[in-house]
Amino acid sequence: MKNQYRMLTAVWALLMAGTVPCTAQDVTVIMQELADLREELVILQRKSYNGENSELEVRVGRLDEVIRSASGRMDELEYKIKQLNEKLDLVNKDIDVRMKLLEGKKITGSGTAAVVDNSPKFAAPVAQNAPSAIVGGAISRGDNLEPIKMPTPAEIYQKGLEALKAADYTAAEENFNKILSKHPQDKLAGNAQYWLGETYYARKEFDRAAVSFAKGYQNYKNSPKRADSLLKLGMSMQSLNKKDEACAAFVSLPTEFPKADKTLKNKAAEGAKKLGCK
Q1: Contact 265, 253 (CB under 8 A)
Q2: Which end of the chain, N or C, is surrounded by fewer C-beta atoms within 10 Å?
Q3: Cβ neighbour number for residue 58 with a 10 Å cutoff
Q4: DSSP state of 227
């Protein structure tokens, strides 16, 4: 009897210590049942002194059943709470992953095994003169870049002349071709065509020079370099040993360009005389 009394006391103390978590409603019910058990224990204690052993044994048996029932309910509550804790853990992990994504951090993997990639990140460059609708107003007005200034035909032409004077024929050719391809109607296009021929003539590429001078003579009627183009066309043909074509250029120059510079007329006459042009 004393052993049963001690067991009941120990169980009551364990339950009162709150070692098993449960919901508020279930706690209220269980606490009420424990209060009833405590009253039963007090009554049993009193009756044990009065010798009422038969009734005491009945009461103890009933109390054993109540304790077993309470213990079973405690186990069930503990299992349910464990499941809830596992679900809460999954929810917390999912929230953590979503927060990392909102913060712009890279997530590798999927589900609960997702891992945050904390490797160094490099911000993409943003055009500082872009509209605020694009950059979001994150750039101060004082940091705007000036728009890129495209070179004018005159600037390109000047670069070509400077490269030609420096005997950088490749750079000169590139600049003169740039004018002819991008600015074919510019007033400097005829001059660029002539100087392009000069870059070939200087490199003794007389066939290409002849083509370029012929274009300068035929395509640019108002170019101040048209008479020069005709003279150099004759000289290129002479270098290619094409006498008839060279003579045609030399002989026609003074007639077609009577107001041409005297130096050009003299060079044409010398070329015609050297070839014995009629």
Answers
A1: yes
A2: C
A3: 10
A4: H
Token look-up 């044990």 returns 48
State the distance between the two ends of the chain, measured CA to CA, in whole angstroms. Answer: 152
The residue-averaged pLDDT of 74-103 equals 73
H/E run at residue 129: none
Q: Which residues pair with 108 in a beta bridge?
A: 115
Mean pLDDT of the chain: 76
As given in the structure block, the two tokens for residue 250 are: 């030399």
Q: What is the DSSP letter of 149?
A: P
**Residue 208: alpha-carbon gap to chain centroid:** 46
Categorize the per-residue pLDDT at 51 as very low, low, confident or very high, splitting at 50, 70 and 90. Answer: low
The DSSP result for 252-263, as a single string, is HHHHH-TTS-HH
Q: Are the CB atoms for 249 and 233 separated by under 8 Å?
A: yes
**Residue 210 to residue 222: CA distance in whole angstroms:** 20
Q: pTM, whole model, 2 decimals?
A: 0.49
